[in-house]
């Protein structure tokens, strides 16, 4: 995604937020409410066991979706560690949260690494990957930007650091900023579990 | 009194140039098998204006100094030539800012390991000092690593 479409995406988020604000019955969220967004409908990726996965597989659970790469030293582990805390904060409802980690670096993130990596955080987390085209398609659908950047003898990835939250009916509901606190996101997920059954 | 003054002078005279740079709370994130990169973080304070210009680690093929920036929810990571260490000020390498980036790890780093690192600091007279650092490996999923914010 280029800069212009990213800006358009931000404008879209703001508009969605404004629309949600007009509805007095709309629940309050700490994260950005993107209910009714015309993107983020589905993905078609593969899990480390080789099973094809799409959003429909997780109906009945709140899904937290994050795009990143395992060779990331900073934002990705911080985000997944927050997801671990969110799940703990949910207590007995933690099982109704499914955390999905989509690699934007399928070249290096083999299914084996993905499995080891997500399990190191929480055995319930699932890593997802696709070939270059499937990865691009999923990222585009969620307006996630990523780009390979050479550094020394290797490369790193620039990428969108937002997580998305999808309700138990499979509708995209929230965009969670990197800075958002675990407590606030857990509260949002509790609200979603309560209001969208 | 006189004795104390003499002791101070003796300490100043005999102190190696290295004594001017102190590293605290160095930590590194553990890795899973086949994961070839990780980041190391620490607090550095120099008693005179200096500059961190490099780092080495026997477990890594390549080590770079990196800066992470977040703009419009976009994460960017770039190599930097150096990191200024203004006299007397604690510079913290931490998630969301600077880190020491290790590439081509020769083996996984397990939580609890002590990982040897050396950092290279350039002094005002352009001389370079190497400081040995021991980084404590924290679990990949640790959220309360040294110096990390709870967010
Ligand atoms: Cu880096």
Any overview of this molecule?
The complex is a heterodimer of chains A (197) and B (151). Chain A is α+β, with helices and mostly antiparallel strands and 197 residues long. Chain A is 36% helix and 23% strand. The longest helix of chain A has 20 residues, at 3-22. Chain A has five helices and ten strands. Chain A has one domain (3-196): Glutaredoxin (3-Layer(aba) Sandwich), CATH 3.40.30. The model of chain B is unreliable at 6-18 and 145-151 (pLDDT under 50). The relative contact order of chain B is 0.26. In chain B, strands 1, 2, 3, 4, 5, 6, 7, 8, 9 and 10 form a ten-stranded mixed β-sheet that branches. Chain B has one helix spanning 2-14, and strands at 21-29, 38-46, 50-56, 60-71, 74-79, 83-85, 90-93, 98-105, 114-122, 128-138. Chain A binds chain B through residues 6, 10, 70-75, 77-78, 80-82, 84-85, 108, 110, 112-113, 116-117, 120-122, 145, 149, 151-154, 156, 158-162, 177-182, and chain B through 29-30, 32-39, 61-62, 64, 66, 68, 70, 72-79, 95-96, 99, 101, 103-104, 139-143, 148, 150-151. Strand 8 (154-160) of chain A pairs antiparallel with strand 5 of chain B. Copper (II) ion is lined by residues 39, 66, 77, 99, 101 of chain B.
- CATH class category of chain B: Mainly Beta
SS element count, helices of chain B = 1
- Give average pLDDT of chain B, whole number: 86
Please state how the strands of the largest beta sheet of chain A are arranged side by side: 1-10-9-4-5-6
CATH class of chain A: Alpha Beta
CATH fourth-tier homologous superfamily of chain B: PCu(A)C copper chaperone
Question: Which short descriptors sum up this protein?
Answer:
heterodimer, A: 197 residues, alpha+beta, Glutaredoxin, two-stranded antiparallel ribbon, 5 helices, disordered N terminus, B: 151 residues, mainly beta, Immunoglobulin-like, ten-stranded mixed β-sheet, 1 helix, 10 strands, binds copper (II) ion
């Amino acid at each position: 995604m280029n800069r212009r479409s990213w800006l358009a995406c931000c404008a879209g988020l703001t508009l969605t937020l404004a629309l949600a604000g007009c509805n007095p019955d709309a629940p309050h969220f700490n994260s950005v409410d993107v209910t009714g967004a015309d993107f983020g409908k589905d993905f078609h990726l593969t899990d480390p066991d080789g099973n094809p996965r799409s959003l429909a597989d997780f109906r009945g659970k709140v899904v937290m979706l994050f795009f990143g790469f395992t060779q990331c030293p900073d934002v990705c582990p911080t985000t997944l560690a927050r997801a671990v805390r969110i799940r703990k904060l949910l207590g007995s409802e933690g099982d109704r949260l499914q955390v999905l980690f989509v690699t934007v670096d399928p070249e290096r993130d083999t299914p084996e690494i993905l499995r080891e990596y997500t399990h190191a955080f929480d055995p319930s987390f699932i890593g997802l990957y696709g070939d270059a085209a499937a990865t691009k398609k999923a990222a585009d659908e969620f307006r996630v930007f990523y780009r390979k950047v050479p550094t020394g003898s290797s490369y790193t990835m620039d990428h969108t650091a937002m997580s998305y939250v999808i309700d138990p009916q499979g509708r995209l509901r929230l965009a969670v900023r990197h800075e958002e606190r675990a407590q606030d996101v857990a509260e949002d997920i509790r609200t979603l579990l309560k209001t969208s059954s | 009194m006189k004795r104390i003054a003499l002791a101070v002078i003796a300490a100043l005279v005999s102190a190696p140039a290295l004594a001017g740079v102190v590293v605290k709370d160095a930590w590194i994130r553990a890795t899973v098998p086949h994961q070839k990169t990780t980041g190391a973080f620490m607090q550095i304070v120099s008693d005179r204006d200096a500059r961190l210009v490099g780092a080495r680690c026997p477990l890594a093929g390549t080590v770079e100094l990196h800066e992470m920036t977040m703009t419009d929810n976009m994460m960017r990571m770039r190599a930097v030539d150096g990191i200024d260490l203004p006299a007397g000020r604690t510079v913290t390498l931490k998630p969301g800012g600077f880190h020491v980036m290790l590439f081509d790890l020769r083996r996984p780093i397990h939580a609890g390991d002590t990982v040897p690192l050396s950092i290279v600091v350039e002094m005002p007279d352009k001389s370079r000092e190497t400081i040995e650092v021991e980084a404590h490996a924290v679990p990949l999923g640790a959220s309360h690593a040294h110096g990390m914010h709870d967010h």
